[in-house]
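It is time I had a proper look at our fold encoding. Can you supply me with one protein entry, sequence and fold together? It will help me judge whether the discrete encoding reads sensibly. Leave the record below and I will have a look:
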Amino acid sequence: MPRIDFKKINEKVSPITILFVALSILTIFVFLFFLILPDHKSIKKIQQDIKSASADIQVINEKFLPVYAKAKKFEVIKFEPRFPIPNRKNMDRKNLSTLPDLFQKLALEHNLKLSNKDLDPGFLNTEAKKIPMFLELYGNLQNFRSYLIAIIALPFFDSFEKININLMDNTIKKFSVDLKINIK
């Protein structure tokens, strides 16, 4: 193996060249240091963000995935109303006088006392297709519930506008109902 004679190389290479090579190497290291180190820090920051996001996703999966699964089950279930909703028909204006007696009969069937049953006769002079009615009853809340269901089952019922429930004493409650009836 040939021997390298450093003295000859030293004589051929000037100190300026050595300084230039040293500065070049130093410049390369500085550039690498300032390019790679920030990227390395940035990579660590990204890794921490990924870990944080993974933890958040895990929490979301633990909390919301069961709820989502239950919601998906409800999507398959077909809705069948519990209460029969009849085909809606308009009541003839001639038969409106029978309404107070009908609501009185329904109240008695549901163990309620009907104290006020006002039909607004002013609407009869108009071409309105719906007539408002006010009912005031006394009784038990469960009986009132079944009474409302019976009213909904009437073919000429349109809608409840307002329902008020007031406590009279421990067992008896006062109920007020504003409703609308479809008329011809």
Remarks:
- The radius of gyration is 44 Å.
- Residues 6-76 form one domain.
- Strands lie at 113-119, 130-139, 157-167, 173-182.
